[in-house]
Design goal:
Layout lengths: L19 E12 L2 E12 L3 E5 L6 H9 L6 E6 L2 E2 L10 E4 L11 H11 L4 H14 L15 H13 L5 E5 L7 H18 L2 E6 L2 H7 L2 E6 L2 E6 L1 H6 L4 H6 L4 E8 L2 E4 L3 E4 L9 E7 L4 E4 L9 E13 L4 E7 L6 E5 L11 E7 L4 E4 L2 H10 L1
Helix pairs in contact: 2-3, 2-4, 4-5
Length: about 375
């Protein structure tokens, strides 16, 4: 059993150690013959809200549990403030974890739930009272201090769990999908609340999530993982506008992919002919994808001439989806396979299904990625 030697794509500014609270160096974790973490290296800054993002089974929760001491690494180092944590027990590490289930004690008041860990440390009554009252004030739960968990809303229970985690003043707080059990509206509200509280307490937060919108809303930086490897570490804006490969581009936001063969400053497609691409973004020659964000494309009028620097394609409108402030128009491009999606600001001018349409996008706003090797292999087998 071995790990791959391919280099990770990381944020280049992280070469400097100044300001790093956690340094993860070449961590590998095997479960039997399954490699859950494959040569992972990361640096997380002091006071940062950092997200581990990826699909189910990508290794993000395993990495979080390794930081917390709930899983032992097979090899590698995990340092906190320069001290290696590998081999130490969870309670010996200056970190705390907030679980998805919250795990509140139903028979205890809010105040006692928050105080539980401090009482276990046998701190003085005055110290416990001072710290619990301070934390409850920060999360706006003073009025609920005497209630039981079943008397609280979902958002209030979430804040109790957060209070219990931060009252012990850990160096780092680990959050394992803490909002997954909430409904969509409350989850959106609590994303903003969590970010506000993190700014308020000034603590380093590391959150695990499979929801890219959640990660982009809260995190200062995001590590995208797949199959146990870190594919890219960057700010939300950088991830969205400059994804490093096809997987990250598809996982972060919506993206249209037009398959073809890349050669120089063009991509030859099956049904759309040769389309121009900007030279700096072409990583290799051969099978690839032209990638266009829906909001960067537009629909041309019947007699409209494309603007300078725009590429165009023709297809048939499959339908449109109204989502409030926007309408997503789906156009099946001639010979291109999957529908091409455009985002339009209004519903009143959405073309009907079956109408012919021309779409346009700026060449310098589109990206080009090599076709994943697995897809190239499948295409070759079917040839």
């Amino acid at each position: 059993m071995s790990v791959t030697d391919e280099p990770q794509t990381v944020d280049p500014v992280l070469d400097a150690a100044d300001g790093d609270v956690i340094r993860i160096e070449r961590v590998v974790k095997w479960f039997g013959d399954v490699c859950a973490l494959n040569d992972v290296s990361l640096q997380i800054r002091d006071g940062e809200f950092f997200a581990l993002l990826g699909p189910s089974g990508c290794g993000k929760t395993t990495l979080l549990r390794c930081i917390g001491g709930f899983e032992e690494v097979t090899s590698g180092r995990i340092e906190l403030d320069g001290a290696d944590l590998v081999g130490s027990r969870p309670y010996e590490r200056p970190v705390n974890m907030m679980f998805q289930s919250y795990a509140l004690f139903p028979h205890l008041r809010v105040w006692d739930n928050v105080a539980y860990g401090l009482k276990a440390e046998r701190l003085s009554k005055d110290e416990i009272r001072s710290r619990v009252d301070e934390v409850l004030a920060k999360v706006d739960l003073v009025a609920q201090a005497d209630r039981r968990p079943h008397q609280l809303s979902g958002g209030q229970r979430q804040r109790v769990a957060l209070s219990r985690a931060i009252v012990k003043r850990p160096r780092v707080l680990l959050l394992d999908e803490p909002l997954a059990a909430l409904d969509r509206k409350l989850r959106g509200e609590m994303q903003i609340e969590l970010k506000r509280l993190q700014n308020e307490v000034g603590m380093t937060f590391i959150i695990v999530t499979h929801d890219q919108e959640e990660a982009m809303t809260m995190a200062d930086r995001i590590a995208v993982l797949d199959h146990g490897r870190v594919l890219q570490v960057a700010t939300p804006r950088e991830l969205y506008h400059h994804p490093v490969d096809h997987f990250v581009a598809a996982f972060i936001g919506k993206m249209n992919f037009i398959p073809g063969d890349v050669a120089g400053d063009a991509i030859a497609t099956t049904g759309l002919g040769s389309l121009p691409v900007r030279q700096p973004t072409v990583p290799v020659s051969g099978p690839g994808y032209l990638a266009v964000r829906p909001e960067t494309a537009r629909m041309l009028g019947d007699d409209e001439t494309p603007a300078t620097g725009e590429a165009t394609a023709t297809g048939t409108v499959e339908g449109s989806v109204f989502v409030g402030s926007q309408t997503h128009v789906h156009v099946v491009l001639d010979g291109a396979g999957d529908p091409f999606v455009l985002t339009r600001p209004r519903i009143d001018d959405a073309p009907p299904a079956g109408a012919r349409a021309r779409v346009a996008w700026r060449v310098d706003e589109a990206l080009v990625f090599p076709r994943p090797q697995s897809e190239v292999a499948v295409a070759g087998d079917g040839a």
